From TrEMBL:
Keyword tags: 4Fe-4S, Electron transport, Iron, Iron-sulfur, Membrane, Metal-binding, Transmembrane, Transmembrane helix, Transport
Name of the protein described by the UniProt record: 4Fe-4S ferredoxin-type domain-containing protein
Annotated source species: Leptolinea tardivitalis
Keyword match Glycoprotein: no
CDD domains xref list: DMSOR_beta_like
InterPro entries named in the record: 4Fe4S_Fe-S-bd, 4Fe4S_Fe_S_CS, Electron_Trans/Redox
The UniProt record lists the keyword Nucleotide-binding: no
């Protein structure tokens, strides 16, 4: 029998839940100051995301895109190196989406009765998606933002807090597209099969599963195993092969569910030899199931991935080709006129190729002037930030020390000198302006302008394009429904 008492296994599983909850709260903590500021008006110190710096996929894509500054921090390198030691433990213990999926899985009670076929394997689609994302990163980071689970989580939480938390019902229409859509897809997939996204689609998991093949953490099966298959049925990642002692370390997240499911306590986890030294697959025999496993797990070997066939190579090459062609194809869909972007944003074409729609800048904006785009700027701008002056004007320095540039994880928004801050140009609609159309002495926009760009001449408002910074204070304060003065992109 195994030397691991059952109550110890239970404590370890509870410990895992506590670790998952702790990391989830840690990643959510940067949103706390935003909630306090927006709900109670309290001035708080803004925080950058504690999650995205550890994103291996995002930082790898940035390197391919030409941004190498992330290597100095080394947070993503720490996660990648940890995969050699602890396999895909990040997916099972730290990833916030994985934590949420584990929380909601008990709701899908019918999955407990399903029996997993011994020959069931996970799709290799995730590796094709990984190649697609990495190759596309040479030209555009957009696809990384769309498919990276950590970015999806960040965007979802940002959408909830910046809209629902302040009861901004006028902007709920954007939520399904810029925040909830992909997250909802992940939850629906979980409804169908446990960890379906993690096993078959997630490019982040595919990336860290490559070094996980050499994991020092082992799953051991003793000779107490009776081949009942309970461990295989319980495993949410389908990481157990046809024989109970066979472990696919590229899929195993060390969730410990199989250890708890074993009726004979014949499964344990611990450090051992490198997976590369255990790559021996024992072919099953007819009488093997009637015999106990002799020796420890290291002696019986582990399940190893098969050799890469020519077909798989062609599939990966095709995925890379599609990724390389996807960014130029999206450029054809970009409209001629863009949106009013935050101060310091890259030129429109470069901005949409660099922005990952994480919505960190939207979360941090003190005046709530930034909003995620739906179709206002075309397909390539979905989820990207733009200035919506009717919601709030941009607070140029010194009231806002370029917070959007500070929190941008990919450099789509960069710090610039104060005298160069210019988001757009305000223009007056003479047909609706009270001072032009009706001769009313309305100077709200003139009084609101901080750059002395809006002036009154003979009772009518004019805008000096050279002085206008496009902050949107004039548009925000205009009493005309829909505003008679609007900020347009440069």
């Amino acid at each position: 029998m195994s030397n691991v008492p059952k109550n110890t296994i239970g404590r370890v599983r509870i410990g895992r839940r506590l670790v998952q909850t702790g990391f989830l709260l840690l990643f959510l903590f940067p949103w706390l100051p935003v909630l306090l500021h927006r709900l109670y008006g309290k001035e708080t110190q803004p925080m950058t995301s504690w999650l995205l710096p550890f994103d291996v996929l995002l930082n790898g894509s940035k390197a391919l895109h030409g941004e190498f500054a992330w290597i100095v921090a080394g947070a993503a390198l720490f996660v990648a190196a940890g995969s050699w030691v602890l396999g895909r433990s990040f997916c099972g213990w730290i990833c916030p989406i994985g934590t949420i999926l584990d929380w909601i899985r008990p709701l899908f009670f019918w999955q407990r009765k399903k029996t997993v076929r011994p020959s069931a394997k996970n799709s290799r689609l995730r590796f094709r998606i990984l190649v697609f994302v990495l190759v596309a990163a040479f030209l555009s980071l957009q696809f990384t933002g769309w498919l990276d689970p950590l970015v999806i989580f960040n965007r979802t939480v940002s959408a909830i807090i910046t809209n629902l938390a302040i009861f901004d019902l006028s902007n709920l229409r954007i939520l399904p597209f810029t925040g909830f859509l992909l997250f909802a897809v992940i939850v629906i997939l979980e409804f169908l099969q446990p960890r379906f996204w993690c096993r078959n689609v997630c490019p982040f998991g595919a990336l860290i599963s490559l070094p996980a093949h050499f994991s020092l953490m082992n799953r051991r099966v003793t000779n107490d195993c009776t081949y009942c298959g309970e461990c295989r049925n319980m495993c949410p990642m389908r990481a157990i092969g046809p024989e109970p002692h066979e472990t696919r370390y590229a899929d195993c997240t060390f969730c410990l569910d199989c250890e708890a499911a074993c009726p004979n306590q014949g499964i344990s986890f611990g450090f051992g030899k490198l997976a590369s030294s255990r790559w021996k697959k024992i072919p099953p025999t007819d009488g093997m199931k009637d015999q106990p496993i002799t020796g420890s797990y290291e002696e019986t070997g582990s399940m190893v991935p098969g050799t890469i066939s020519r077909r798989r190579v062609l599939e990966l090459v095709a995925a890379g080709g599609v990724g390389l062609a996807a960014a130029p194809a999206l450029n054809l869909l970009r409209p001629q006129t863009g949106l009013v972007r935050p101060p310091g944003a890259l030129p429109e074409a470069q901005f949409t190729q660099t922005c990952i729609s994480c919505q960190e800048c939207i979360r941090i904006c003190p005046s709530q002037a930034l909003r995620p785009a739906l179709f206002e700027g075309g397909l390539t701008s979905i989820g990207t930030p733009y200035l919506s002056p009717r919601q709030g004007a941009c607070s140029f320095n010194p009231s806002c020390p370029q917070l959007c540039a500070q929190v941008c994880p990919v450099g789509a928004i960069r710090s610039i000198p104060v005298h160069k801050m210019k988001t757009g140009i305000a223009r007056v609609n003479h047909n609706t302006c009270l001072a032009w159309d009706q001769g009313v002495k309305c100077l709200v926009c003139v009084e609101a302008c901080l750059s002395d760009a809006a002036k009154s001449e003979n009772g009518r408002v004019i805008v000096n394009a050279e002085k206008c910074t496009g902050c949107g204070r004039c548009e925000s304060g205009c009493p005309v429904p829909g505003s008679a003065i609007k900020v347009y992109p440069l």
